[in-house]
Amino acid sequence: MELRDQVVLVTGANGGIGSALVSAFLTAGVKKIYAATKKTGTLPGLFSDQRVTPVVIDIANPSSVNTAAQACPDVTILVNNAGINLGSSLLDAPISARMEFDVNVFGTLSMCTAFAPVLKANSGGCIVNVISILAMVSMPSNGTYCASKAALHSITQGMRGTLAGQGTRVVGIYPGPVATRLTEGLEIPKAAPTKVAEEVVAGLMDDCDEVYPDDMSKNVSQGLAANAKAVEQQFAAF
Ligand SMILES: NC(=O)c1ccc[n+]([C@@H]2O[C@H](COP(=O)([O-])OP(=O)(O)OC[C@H]3O[C@@H](n4cnc5c(N)ncnc54)[C@H](OP(=O)(O)O)[C@@H]3O)[C@@H](O)[C@H]2O)c1
After folding, report:
1. Each residue of 69-90: pLDDT tens digit?
2. In the chain, where the domains are located
3. How far apart are the CA of 2 and the centre of ligand 1, in A?
4. Given this structure, which CATH class describes domain 7-235?
């Protein structure tokens, strides 16, 4: 996919991976970026580039999402990056699970459905869902988050088939741990958000359906293909 002349919308643009994605798309030469944040005034100052247009979208609020779809009629690449992880075990459900599903699942799903007609009107375009390698294997300390990302993985696969007829590509991104607010306090090796964003952009240019943007996600993905039960047992300890 050629990125020049594309109009990109990135949700969660003030977050670690979201900010890095905005920078990476600018470097790749896109025409325009809608940098979407949940609240006004939270965009980093570094987005002084004239191609960046701030928008406010609370993805968990359907009326906010529908308003955005009307206000951004020229979008050709929708990047659903916004997400939350409350670090909750399944025994903390249903409150944590409900909050995570509201954002990660229903919020992202409503962005896909609201922008599908926009993308169709703009020759098909592309949806990029930032999921997680934890969609593929559950980590009990984050059990509710893993369940929400597993649901988003399924939605991503389903959307790929659903929107194929209108020429919309649907891409899933499956990072391992990345050094952002979401993993603050976790003493584990983490990828840099800039590296993840570069891999996402490269994956789009290479027409990949799935992107594993760091060493950990690549290793886990290969491990799952070789012996899924062994990987499940390994993650069950965390
Ligand atoms: N960091 C990791 O290790 C990792 C690994 C795999 C996948 N991911 C995924 O990567 C994505 C980005 O996360 P991150 O690591 O960059 O974390 P982050 O720095 O916490 O960024 C999350 C972003 O999502 C936004 N957001 C949360 N709820 C929202 C809502 N209702 N409407 C609109 N925006 C909302 C946040 O906005 P506010 O700041 O205003 O709350 C923030 O901009 C998430 O989907 C996450 O699940 C992260």
Report:
1. 999 999 999 999 999 999 999 9
2. 7-235
3. 26
4. alpha beta
